[in-house]
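Collaborator request, handled under Task 6.
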Amino acid sequence: MEYRPYYAIYCAIIVSLGGFVFGFDASVISGVVGPVTIEFGLTPIQAGFVVAAPTLSSAIGTLLIGPLSDAFGRKKILMFIALVYLVSAVLSALSTSYIMLLAARALGGFAFTSLIIAPMYIAEIAPAQRRGKLVSVNQLNIVIGLSAAYFANYYILGLSSSGAEWVSAWGIDQQSWRWMLGFEIIPALIFFIALFAIPDSPRWLIQKGREQEARAVMAKLMPADQVDSEISLITQSSATENESLWARIGGIFGPKMRLALIVGIIVAVVQQITGINAIFFYAPTIFEQSGIGTDAAFAQAVLVGLINVIFTLVAIALIDRWGRRPLLLVGLSGIAISMALCTYGFSQATYELPKESVAHIQQIETTDVSQLNALVGVVYHSDVEFKTAVSEAIGAEAALRYESELIKSAAQMNAVLILVGILGFVASFAMSLGPVMWALFSEIFPNQLRGVAISFVGMINSMVSFLVQLLFPLELSVLGAALTFFSYFVFAVIGLILVAWLLPETKGKSLEELESIFGKKAQTGSSAY
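Structure tokens returned to the collaborator:
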């Protein structure tokens, strides 16, 4: 076998196609939740479950996926994940009830574990000096997938109102949300087929005693004179490779793992509790709350996707130059500032329903909505107060159906300030917590415990994400937008303090060096440097 300088990049790109499918799956629901809520008559908590179901099942999956990848190899597990994505997309698009859609979405959540296995695989094949960039390729594909879903939703929404004959014949005008969900079939199939072209991880092969196969893979990844020393390092760090699963689970709570585990848990919680998946999965809903209307909300969601891609590229350029710690500190500072802007923008909003809006709804609504006239000219000082008054006047179902139009006509606020806050948040996240978390997870845990440890912190990350997604519609309806975004601001400040206090730098060091560094720091009680 001959050394191929770009072989690691080639493998990373293929594996990170799973990131694209995840990104598409995760954000396509942003355009679906509104129509599905109306079609199936969902409550806010039921709508939250449609969005959050995959994250709940992924939390269960993350407990299993690390040990399974240790047993069967990263490649085989990735292929299984690709098949799950495919089946979930088909069933989601064909769903005929709330329960069926919920089950199909939950099935797809087990494939979200690609977020754990892909960075693990890439870190195990990447040279130390390029590991941050290559692991971040997965994050880049995630944000490209997110953006692609926003574009697809916006395009399908436009088609649904085009009036074209073929649009009506294919049911796009009446069932546009099914086409949004079904579009995922294409990238999921491509991902599955492409995985046949990559090898197993050489570190996993060595742990399984398959040294000759590992040598053949490593001969493509590095110059021939480096292969023996690299295999020697891996073998030394894998002294406990034959320990049982329970012994490895116990190992992640040992004294040498203390600092790595604390850092992993903090970053896992902070990445989600600051609200990123509320922004990604409910982007059109959030923009509708600023009074710009449905079409403009979908258009601004596309802008969220573009900003996400641009600043992920910034992170890839800087992660091995600046390091993980500076990116996290800058990003968390930006997140806190952005959430403060959103909080201020929504807190200053007022709502006054004009008579023209009521007249328009009366023309298109078959039921009596004349009670809305009692709201005309009344000034409401919060979105919760206004939406409660509308719901009491015409009923919850009609209020939900016309929520976007009513807020658009009644809201008086600085929508540009809110847009700047949301885009600033996305930019700050994309250059920090997004790619850096998975790079850290793939680095800070030792070879023999990596699968189990990443499963554990990944499960925590998924559970926090599930709660954020589940509760967001309820928070909007009970607390209002201003208090919801204020809570994200508070969590960002807490995260910034903890990261500044505890996180060491990891750039440019081999996985085996980092294992030694984190073990020594845990024993001496030191933290960041």
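The cover message to the collaborator said: "The chain has 29 helices and three strands. The domain at 7-198+239-347+416-524 is CATH 1.20.1250.20 (Growth Hormone; Chain: A;). Please let us know whether this matches your experimental observations."
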